[in-house]
Structures are given as structure tokens and as C-alpha cells.
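Incident log entry.

Two folding requests arrived from the same account within the same minute. Monitoring flagged them as a possible duplicate submission, but the sequences differ. Recording both here for audit purposes.

Request one:
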Amino acid sequence: MGKTIREHDLIEKNQHIVLGLSGGPDSVCLFHVLMSLRSQMEITIHPVHLNHKFRPGEAERDQRYTEDLCDRMGVECRTFTVDCAAMARELSVTGEEAGRIARYDAFRETAEDIVSQLMAQGEDEWAARRSVKIAVAHNAGDQAETILFRLLRGTGTDGLAGIAYKRDERGFDVIRPLLDVDRKSIERYCADHGLEPVTDHTNNEAVYARNRIRLELLPFLEENYNENIQGVLLRLGRIAAEDKEYIWQAVERAYTDMAERKTGEKPGYRDAIVMDREKLSQAHGAIRHRLVMKAFGEIGLDSDISEERLKAADAIIGKKQAPKVVEFPRGYRLEVARGQVIFSKST
């Protein structure tokens, strides 16, 4: 794990690490390792536990375990309780997605509180935010499952990169120090250190698609097609991640050259991103499609952009006749008019 931290610049000295601590083997292993490194790295660990209320009895057991573990290790565990089943109904999402939203809400609230405390001690806001990171315990098995899951759903090449070691989540870096560590090594570490993590029985039920991939599909592929299927998927992810990084560097350069943000560009619309139609039409499709995604991401649409809509955008960007419009999800639109491509959202 130390090698992963160094190679991907995940943690620096004197940083505050908000750590998602479910009580399962992965998060308990990460917690214990970071606690053992805290003096050497001069870091402060802030464990956060979320009681999802999904499994009455077991959820409370998990909460007690994490709070007792933190107490034994000499740190305070910040616990949140959220009725994620009710949240899922309210937001019209799956229980799994509601749990994720609730977890990251808890992580961000804790991170914001730490920033406020640091600012009260005299740090400027930029330095305070930079010093806080959110650590989650995805491992190599999770990475392989994610890549296969995305492949089965028809992902593009960016999706084949899998889970990132570090990415921005609402203003804070989310880091994954265990991403190169396999599950057996994690379980062995917990056993060697007498940690006795709790077990979520739903992880062994082939209910969710990810569970079926882990419990049924990967073992089937390993037995019948390639005994090193996990290693193959991880290698694919590393290659795709390198390609993704290179392409997005080119996208960032092109975006800086082409894009301009304007306020009140069109009546009834909020901030808009504007690009020159000729320049955008001449960009390679791999770059142009990502420029379209980045422009929409800048004004709030960072998902649900289908290949069908990108192809529709290509069709009007490539023609000089205007005006033309392609509607995107949630009120966003791309319009070609007066030699410009305008990305906007209705108010």
C-alpha cells in the first residue's frame, strides 16, 4: 500500500484523512494501516461510519464494532444514521445508489467541518481544503469487477480505466490506497493483526449485479477461460487509464483554446459554454466528443450523455447550415448558430 501511496501521490505529510469505515475487512485493514503510518507521515485520521439502516440488528452491530475499534485505537468515530431505503424511494434510485450518496454526503460534511476548524486556526481556505482527503477502501478485486461490469453495460474506452486512484468529488480528493491489494491479502492482514472485522451477509448473496459478477461470473471465467482473469482485467484497466490520461491532456489543451464561458448568452438560459463551430468540427472525433462532455460537465451535466446524442451533435456541428439544436438530458442543449456551438441549460 505504501508503494501505491507514493506512486500516485495519494497522501502527503500533515494531511487530514477522512476515512470511510464500514467495519468490513477492506475498510478495517485500511484504517489499521493508516493508523500505523500516522506518526511517520504526520497525518490525522478521521473515521466516519454510516449506519444505512438496511439490515436491522446487523447495522447496529457494525456501528458498535467500528466505534469500539476506534475507541481502542484512540480516535473518535463520527457516526451518521440515514434511512437509505427511504432515500432511495424519495430519489427514485436503487438502495445501492442511495447508500453511496449518503456515504459521500457524510464524508463531505466531515471534510467541510475539518476545513472550518483549520480556517479558524488561521489557515487560508485553499490550503485547508488541499490538506483534507477522503479515503475509501476499494481493492483490486473491486477494480476487476468494475471493469467487467462496465464492459457488460457497453462502456466507452474511458470506462475501461475502472476506478481511479484519486479523483475529485465535490471539491475534495477521494483516494483509494488499497486499489492494488487483493482481497486475500486484506483478509490475511486482518487475521494476522487480530482485527476480526464484521461480515455483511448481503455481500454473499447474488442479488445485485456486482455481487453476481463477483460470486458467479468471475469464478466461471476463471475456471473455464482464464485462471488469471482478474489479472487480465487489471492489466486492461491500467492500459486504458494511461490512454485516457493522454487523451484528456489533449482535450484540456483544446478546451483552453476553444471554450469561452458566457453569462446570459441566450434569454431564458443560464451560463453557457461557447466554442467556434469550425474549430470544433475539425477536431478528431475522440477529442470532439470529450470536448462536448467537458463543456456540459462545466455547466452541470456530468452523466447520461449517450453515444446517440454525441452522434447527433456531430451531425449539426459538421454542417454550416444553422441554427440547429440537439436536446440533452435534464434541460441541457447544444445549439449551432452564427458559427458558434453553444452549450447551455434552460432556467
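Request two (distinct sequence, not a duplicate):
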Amino acid sequence: MNKSVIVIGGGIIGLCSSYYLQKEGHQVTIIDQSNMDVGASYVNAGFVSPSHIIPLSAPGVMKKGLKWMFNPASPLYIKPRLDPDFLKWTYAFNKSCTADHVKKAIPSIKDLTLLSQELYNDIKANEHFTFQYKKEGLLMLCQTQKALEEEMENAEMAINEGLDVQEVTLEDLKQLEPNVNLNVIGGTYYRSDSHSTPSEFMTEMKTYLKSKGVVFHPNEKVEDLELKDRKITALITKNQKLKADEFVLAAGSWSALLSKKVGIHLLLQAGKGYRINTTKPTGIKLPAILMESKVAVTPMNGFTRFAGTMEIGGINDKINKTRVNAIANAVTKYYPEIALSEIEKDDVASGLRPVSPDGLAYIGRSSKCSNLTIATGHAMLGWSMGTGTGKLVSELISEKSPSLNLDMFNPDRRF
């Protein structure tokens, strides 16, 4: 049975949900408070990364976070504040930082990223999209023996999950990156990973959806959701009231604010990340993560992007120059012949990633609302999981068996 569906949020998750919903014959409307050309879906590193199997809430992360709290240039910064939602999230995050949780989470994370990787390929082939999408792998570059040992432990877990990964020496790296001078001792090479230029995909997908009759409402903020008998009856903005059979909540870091309007209390915090682009030739051929600095490096179509930091400090778009400089300094530290200019650093952009306490997305329906499907909380893996999440959302609304087991992503799970 075809349904009318309103998707709240026009980022990667919202667009991919809309793509698969319209494929199933549903009438789709997308509403977003922005012009749909900014935010995390446009400034991310463009990785589709089965390698990222370890959730953010891993053993030792909370201890590092407390240590880094006093360093404004640290890779992870958690700004303390007396906010009930933040305090609940922090407690749940700390509770989730266990080896047992990591072990349970890995298969679900891996399966969703692999599904998404396959679906990006399908979309590009079936719709004749031209966005940059390459499967050339991902380097994890280390400057210290400690980081290399930690990375080898992660690689061992990845190998046990069937991923193609190997240790690389400095000599190996000279073969893989012949045009770059690297200040590292070695690392690992995940051949399983892909990378893309996000803005290209987003632009092509929006054009495609419009051509298929999907209705767009940009610059329209959702102010309220009317609820009756555990069912949303209407969505209200400043300018209009919209009705539909089904609703999808894919509003990223704003999802927790909207979910409260129907009695669902998602534990979710906004994690700000930054990107710096350079159009100057860098010689960089392969995507990489600078392990000690947690900076991502991506050779995109026509430029190189450097992205990083996880700044959990509430919903805001303020640019912290200290953190921007930390990314730029890390680049030169690992690639001594590359220096980002002040103009490039001033052109920085940021985006907010929705972070759940256990590092797992919320995908599915809540028992508190029968016609709402939630799709948010992907943290740094929104791009890696975008297409797969969209397909799962469509399957749930179309009353089909989902492609993956969604138990670990249940929006009603307890922490």
C-alpha cells in the first residue's frame, strides 16, 4: 500500500530515506530548517568505512575525554554543563564504554557500513550518477609505537570480522604514496574502504528526487508535532500544517528536540566537526586518518579535504579557531611539505553530528508513536551508513522484513 511520507531532515539520511521510499511508490515530502546545502552532510570526510567498526563509546574513551577537557585543541572535547539531557547522556556514555559493548556492537556497525557501500555502488550505476566514488582503501597513519600497537589491535578485530586489512611499514607507504613525504613510523591499510566527494552526491540526489516528484520544503522549521492515540496527525511549521500517513525523523542533532514533542526522549548530543579544503596540489593519493590527531584526509574531486575533531558542546555553529588550527598543525606534522594557508583556514566550515551514548544509531520505530520511524544518532558514520539506513527506513515503512537485524539500533533501548 502506497503511503504519504514526510521526512524531517534533508541531510544524507533524509535524502537516502526519500530515495528508497519513492522507489517503493510512496509519496514523499522532505522538510528541513536549512537551505539544504550546509551541515555535516556537506563537510564530512566522505568516507564509507567498514574499517570504523569500533563505536565511539569504547574502553578508555571517557578517561581520555576527561583528560582532554582541559585541552582546547584535543581531538575530543566534551564541554561540561549543567544540563539534564547532557548529564544523562554523559552517564549513559560512560556506562557504555566497555569491552563487552564493543564486542556486541561491531557486527551491527560492520554490516550496516558494508550494506551502505554496496548501495552507493548500486545508486551510481542504476541512476547514472557521476559523483566521485572510489574504493581505494584507507590508511591509518601512526607517529608513535603506542598508537601503532593500538591500531594493530583494532586491525586484528577487523581481520576477525573478515575485513581486508594489513600492517604497512614506512617503506610500504612510500610505495602507496610515492608523491608525499610522510612523517610517520607506519600504520595499517584497510583495502575495504571507499571515499567520495559529499557535495556531489548530495547535489545529484536532490536533483534526482525532484525529478521523481519528491516535494521539498527548505528553510522550514518544524515547530510542533500533533499527536493523538500514539500517532502523529500533523506537522506544524510557522507557515503551514502538513499531514501524512508516516513520518521519518532524520533531523540529525536536532532530532532529540523534536522527538520530545511526541514523548520520546532520545539521548543525543551534537558533536561538532570541522573541515578545511585546499585546492593546491598535495600529492596525496589515498585517504588517511592521522591517528594521534584524529584528523581525516581525503583526496576529493578537485581538492583535498582535512577534517576532524569531536566537540560535544551543544547545538551551535560557532567556529573555534583553536580547533581549526589544531587540524592544520596536524596536517603539517604528518605531511611536512603541506602547509595550509590562513585563507584556507578562514574558509573553514563545521557540521554537527548526532551522537548517541553507545555510539550506535537509532533506527526504527518507538513504542510511543506508531507512525514515526527514527533514523539518527550515527555520530561520525552518517555518511558511511547513509544509504543503508535509508533502505532500512523504507523497508520498515513499506512493511517489509528489514535487510539487517535492527535490535542494536532500537530507539527504545535502555542505557
